[in-house]
TrEMBL record:
A Pfam family matched in the record: ABC_tran
Swiss-Prot/TrEMBL keywords: ATP-binding, Cell membrane, Membrane, Nucleotide-binding, Translocase, Transport
Name of this protein: ABC-type polar-amino-acid transporter
Subcellular location: Cell membrane
Catalytic activity field: a polar amino acid(out) + ATP + H2O = a polar amino acid(in) + ADP + phosphate + H(+)
ABC transporter domain ranges (all copies): 6-250
Matching SMART domains: AAA
Length: 254
């Protein structure tokens, strides 16, 4: 078992001639929470998408739980893995987006059991039992038979979290999970995320919620211009930033 759940070494990503990630070094130990902050366009979502194989890195190496993402290495040469192998790696990584992306024509319960049943082959009865437990944990057991349109944004996002956790991921990625929500609904989603962290889930969270970062993150990572400018404990990065760009970003938030 490797100690690092995410190990990014000089990860680069270009879209044509546009260099979006210019050498990301970022490590997230197993069981820890890292919050990724930074200005719009700095490459936060792109990095998350690389971790989850939705984008292919153009240089550098990205390991999740010791597995090289997207490639296989033999005698120092990298070979692209097949889409089927990529899907298998992806199945172990949960991702929650700003937009909840629930299936609109399926009930809450059907949304949560979809991937366990169709991707993992979990028997329907087993998947349903587990889904109801997870919905109970996020406070939505009573909405199991509702459709997404009948839920508030905060409720939909809690279902999206339960749906991701239903696959028993070893890592959860969150991309601004609360920024599409009305302010009064943010707290209920952050509470569910905090409980997940308390249960030992390894999490990489892009967020503007500095209170959450301060209280829940083991590490805060500040990105700008496609690279990590500064990383450290919340106290180090948020209260005593060493870099001018970090200070400028933090002061722009208030
Ligand atoms: N598929 C793509 N093709 C071309 N350019 C892209 C693509 N995806 C992202 N980019 C560019 O990469 C840069 C980084 O985008 P990214 O979405 O990663 O930023 P971000 O830090 O998540 O920003 P925000 O805070 O606004 O979400 C931007 O300049 C964006 O236009
Ligand atoms: Mg983004």
């Amino acid at each position: 078992m490797t100690e690092l759940m995410i190990d990014a070494q000089q990860v680069c990503k270009s879209f044509g001639s546009l260099e979006v990630l210019t050498g990301i070094d970022l490590q997230v130990p197993r069981g820890e929470v890292a919050c990724l902050i930074g200005p719009s366009g700095s490459g936060k979502s792109t990095f998350l998408r690389c971790v989850n194989h939705l984008e292919k890195v153009t240089a550098g190496r990205l390991y999740v739980d010791g597995d090289l993402i997207g490639y296989r290495e033999r005698d120092g040469v990298l070979y692209e893995i097949s889409e089927k192998e990529a899907a298998r790696q992806r199945a172990d990584i949960g991702m929650v987006f700003q937009q909840f992306n629930l299936f609109p024509h399926r009930t809450v319960l059907e949304n949560v059991i979809e991937a366990p049943v169709h991707v993992k082959g979990t028997p329907v009865a087993t998947a349903k039992k587990r889904a109801l437990e997870l919905l109970d944990q996020v406070g939505l057991a009573h909405k199991a038979n509702a459709y997404p349109v009948q839920l508030s944004g905060g409720q939909q996002q809690r279902v999206a979290i339960a749906r991701a956790v239903a696959m028993d991921p070893k890592l959860m990625l969150f991309d601004e999970p609360t920024s599409a929500l009305d302010p009064e609904l943010v707290g209920e989603v952050l509470r569910v995320m905090r409980e997940l962290a308390d249960d030992g889930m390894t999490m990489l969270v892009v967020t503007h919620e500095m209170g959450f970062a301060r209280e829940v993150a083991d590490t805060v990572v500040f990105m700008d211009g496609g690279r990590v400018v500064e990383a450290g404990t919340p106290a180090q990065v948020l209260d005593n930033p060493q870099e001018g760009r970090t200070r400028a970003f933090l002061s722009s938030l208030f």
